[in-house]
Amino acid sequence: MFSINKILRENIKKLVPYSSARDEFKGEASVFLDANENAFGSPLEQQYNRYPDPLQYKVKKRLSDIKGVPPRNIFLGNGSDEAIDVLFRSFCNPGVDNVILVPPTYGMYEVSANINDIKINKVPLTEEYQLNLEGIAEAINDHTKMIFICSPNNPTGNSINRDDIETLLANFSGLVVIDEAYINFSRQKTFIQELTEYANLVVLQTLSKAWGLAGLRVGMAFASEEIIEVMNKVKPPYNINEASQELALKALQNVDQVNGWIKEILLQRDRLVLTLKDFDFVLDIYPSDANFILVKTTDPKGIYNFLVDKGIIVRDRSKVDLCEGCLRITVGTPAENDILLQTLQNYK
């Protein structure tokens, strides 16, 4: 049975969070002489002399309308990477606790674990890129605090079997963190809808992919209110700057435009798969629920270098376990995909 107090670090239980100037009053005000800001303004057309909302309420309210989740169940981070780091710092004791990773998967889980001095237990995916439930069960011990699952998975592109994830959620006493960075491109439904069913569920999403806001660095975590409260206590007070909040809020008004882009990306993904499979050097193209495809080739390094020389950058994943021989190719615009395919026709 999951209990947040059993996995929360003792120092975090006792932590008194930083109290910002904007946290210490309620209501409306017109004169702000509390935060040592420059009251004269900013040397810009837009004024950024005031500190931003530390809890980003307007953005969370708009996300709440889109996702169907109350604002109190939403954490916003400086990219999903900050949410990942905050989870490590909140729940894992350095040098004592461990987490389970299921490679091949997103590399920042391992980087963040290493930064925080948290042991990693790796349980590779099966050859079908699905969870090895028996292996995960054997890897869990009294100091296992979190299991990270990327679905749709990066770099393989496939979604992880939903029943397998629910098995972990129902039987693991730590956090199950599901990274849904690519969920907008997937045929699978989000696990956000299961938040009320599983107290140990954390879902990560981002505005960097489908929403096209990678430069703003806005990541999301969805979880129970008690988990979100811990994350808000641990994060820096002003972790999302005012410009990012304003632009994210403006972008979140354009759901129809983003949905149109998603449909076009999926069409272009199908087109890439259909065309690439006819090239002699392509051995396999794995099913994808993301905005990229994993392509197994006869000469990944040679193809990669050939494309680089032509000014086209893809990702060489051939040294990653279970991705031998593979290139990861992001779905571009029709014009970018034309250039890629035309260039590859000249590869010998």
UniProtKB/TrEMBL annotation:
Pfam families: Aminotran_1_2. GO terms for biological process: L-histidine biosynthetic process. Signal peptide: none annotated. Residues 45-344 form the Aminotransferase class I/classII large domain. Its cofactor is pyridoxal 5'-phosphate. Transmembrane segments: none annotated. It is an enzyme of class 2 (transferase). SUPFAM superfamilies: PLP-dependent transferases. Keywords: Amino-acid biosynthesis, Aminotransferase, Histidine biosynthesis, Pyridoxal phosphate, Transferase. It comes from the Bacteria. Pathway: Amino-acid biosynthesis; L-histidine biosynthesis; L-histidine from 5-phospho-alpha-D-ribose 1-diphosphate: step 7/9; Lipid metabolism. The modification N6-(pyridoxal phosphate)lysine is found at residue 209. GO terms for molecular function: histidinol-phosphate transaminase activity; pyridoxal phosphate binding. It catalyses: L-histidinol phosphate + 2-oxoglutarate = 3-(imidazol-4-yl)-2-oxopropyl phosphate + L-glutamate. PROSITE patterns: AA_TRANSFER_CLASS_2. Its EC number is 2.6.1.9. Homodimer. Belongs to the class-II pyridoxal-phosphate-dependent aminotransferase family. Histidinol-phosphate aminotransferase subfamily. This is Histidinol-phosphate aminotransferase. It comes from Mucilaginibacter mallensis. The gene is hisC.
